[in-house]
Structures are given as C-alpha cells and as structure tokens.
Amino acid sequence: MNRSDMATYNDVALTINAPIYAYYAERILAKTDVREGVCLDVGCGGGYLGLALAKITGLQLLFLDHSADMLQHTAENIRACNLGDRARIILATVQEIPLEEGTVDLVISRGSLPFWGELGAAFGEIKRVLKKGGHAYIGGGLGPAEMRERLQQELCAYNPDWFEHHRKPPVKINGQYREGLVSAGIRNFTITRSDVGTWVEFRGV
Ligand SMILES: C[S@@+](CC[C@H](N)C(=O)[O-])C[C@H]1O[C@@H](n2cnc3c(N)ncnc32)[C@H](O)[C@@H]1O
User: Which of 37, 61, 79, 119 could form a disulfide with 87 if both were Cys (CB 3.0 to 4.6 A apart)?
Assistant: First the structure.
C-alpha cells in the first residue's frame, strides 16, 4: 500500500470497519480471558484490534508492524484513544520480534497472517516471546455474516471501487499454516476456518 492507500485504510478502519475490531476483541477476550499483562498486536496496521482490546481490558499493548508509515497512524490512533500510557510501538517484522523470551501474555493479529512469508520463523518468534500458558490468537476475518454484509454495502457506497482497488490478501491454505506451526515446534494448536474467518490458536509452553 502506498501512503494515500494507508490513509484511506486507516479512515475506513476507524469508521465503517470499526465494528469488526470490536467484535474480534470481544471474541478474543471471551476465548482467552486475558485481561491484564502484556498483549502484542502483530502486523497491527493502525493498531485497531489492540486498541479495541485495550478499551475493554487493563492490558498493556505492544503494537508491532514492519511499516513505519502504518505505525504513524498507530501513534495517532493511540493518542486519540488516550491510551499512550498503556501502549508502545515497535517497528519490526514478525520474523524477528525484538522482545525478550517469555514476556508476552497474549499475542493477537488480524488480517496480517496471509501476508507473512517464512511462516516457521514467524510462528517460532511468537512462540518464543509468549509466556508459559500465554495465548496466541492469530488470523483474519470480516466478522459474522450479518456484519460482513452490512459493512460491504457501506464500503461500496463509500467507494464503489473499494474491492477492486484494495488488494485481497494472498490465499493460503490450512496446510501452509500447519507446516509453519509444526516447523516452529508448536505441537498443540488449532486452525479454525469458519464463517468468522480463519484463526490459529496456541498456548505458550
Ligand atoms: C491488511 S493489514 C492489517 C492491519 C490490521 N491488523 C487490521 O486488522 O486492519 C496487514 C498489516 O500487516 C503488516 N505486515 C505484513 N507482513 C508483516 C511482517 N512480516 N511483519 C510485520 N508486519 C507485517 C503490514 O504492514 C500491514 O500493516
């Protein structure tokens, strides 16, 4: 994405698509019950999912992305939410996370996984930084059907070329995720492909 596409993506994420992040934040909380400690949002974009989760928990948020331009939006969004005292930004790739081993209670990520190369290295890094018993909840989706359809209509009204213009993520099959997880030495994981997207879950050991 160029800078102008990023700015548009950010505007849409904060307005039309905002319910998506609130939905997955609630879902992650219901699934993991992690309310305190450190949460790492990987491939955070403008930090939408992490910020939605910060609003309903006491978590400290680390926002990691390999795009410095995207992280400028994250910084603005953190300020707008008054969450500066609970948030830090990290410019890095998921394949090389500059954090100590066993320091993160919850790793979350939405909409970034399909873009990751070197999946074994990526999952290996997430495994390394997770605390024992910590949770990883990583994947993507546009919410449940009713929400998805409503938002798609709103997006088409906002910009009829939206789906033409915005690149769809490369399609990856479950086997590629499985291979990456296994090569990272992660033994217990689930990959769920359902109406609300594809999500990978595992725990720190
Ligand atoms: C489609 S955006 C999703 C952003 C946000 N998580 C959301 O749900 O709207 C994908 C993001 O993943 C980031 N990304 C892609 N590959 C990455 C990698 N290997 N390491 C870190 N960030 C990555 C991109 O820079 C981009 O901000």
Answer: 61
Whole-number Å distance between alpha carbons of 1 and 90: 19
Q: Tell me, using a 6 A CB cutoff, whether residue 17 lines ligand 1.
A: no
Strand pairing partners for 64? 42, 90
For residue 4, what are the CA distances in angstroms to 7, 13, 60, 62?
5, 14, 30, 25
Burial (Cβ within 10 Å: 0-12, 13-18, ≥19) of residue 191: middle
Ligand 1 atom index nearest CA of 21: 8
Locate the DSSP E strands across 45-147. 60-65, 87-91, 104-110, 130-140
- Work out the pLDDT band at 167, boundaries 50, 70, 90: low
- Whether 73 is in the pocket of ligand 1, judged by its Cβ within 6 Å, is no
Whether ligand 1 lies within 6 angstroms of the CB of 77 is answered as no
What are the strands, taking DSSP E only, across the chain?
A: 38-42, 60-65, 87-91, 104-110, 130-140, 189-194, 197-203
Interval 84-127: pLDDT, tens: 999 999 999 999 999 999 999 999 999 999 999 999 999 999 99
Which residue from 65, 142, 166, 196 has its CB within 8 A of the most atoms of ligand 1, so it is best to mutate?
A: 65
The alpha carbon of 67 and the centre of ligand 1 are apart by a number of angstroms equal to 8
pTM for the whole structure = 0.96
Compute the distance between CA of residue 13 and CA of residue 24 in angstroms, rounded to an integer. 13
